[in-house]
Design goal:
Elements lengths: L5 E8 L2 H10 L10 H6 L9 H16 L4 E9 L8 E12 L2 E10 L2 E11 L11 E2 L2 E2 L1
Antiparallel strand pairs: 1-3, 2-5, 3-4, 4-5, 6-7
């Protein structure tokens, strides 16, 4: 892996089921994530994906590409254009920094109306849960 390398894109169809299931799984019961009528009453054309679902998809994108020994250290994202049902979000990534076995990857998730998510993911490569110093704890590392 080198700075400037790109990850292959991942296309994720944004279905109504994905949006609702992600909201329920993350205990986000805001009506804009499951009730189209109430979402429209609040000014949205339809239900839309919540940030926790997006965060999980970004993490999946990185770990699916880097493998089971990759450990997410930090995911810092911002939302932009909403993900509505019927659209497709395409995730792309570029390696922006390397420090030993730690990489920083710039991630963009675009849909038909713009960038849904932008941010960076810091990941340790080749780590396992049994390796010393690879588990994050509130005090730092285990």
């Amino acid at each position: 892996m080198n700075i400037g390398d790109t990850l292959p894109p991942l296309e994720i169809p944004v279905s109504r089921t994905l949006i609702v299931a992600g909201a329920i799984a993350s205990r986000d019961y805001q009506d804009v994530h499951h009730d189209a009528v109430l979402a429209r009453e609040k000014g949205s054309p339809d239900i839309f994906m919540n940030i926790l679902t997006t965060n999980g998809l970004v993490g999946r994108y990185i770990t699916d590409h880097l493998g089971p020994r990759a450990v997410l250290r930090k995911v810092a994202i911002r939302l932009g254009a909403p993900n509505y049902p019927g659209d497709t979000m395409t995730l792309t990534g570029t390696v922006t920094a390397l420090d030993g076995n730690t990489a920083e990857i710039r991630v963009v998730g675009a849909n038909g109306i713009g960038h849904h998510v932008t941010g960076t993911v810091t990941v340790t490569l080749g780590a396992t849960a049994a390796d010393p110093g690879t588990l994050a704890t509130p005090e730092g590392t285990a």
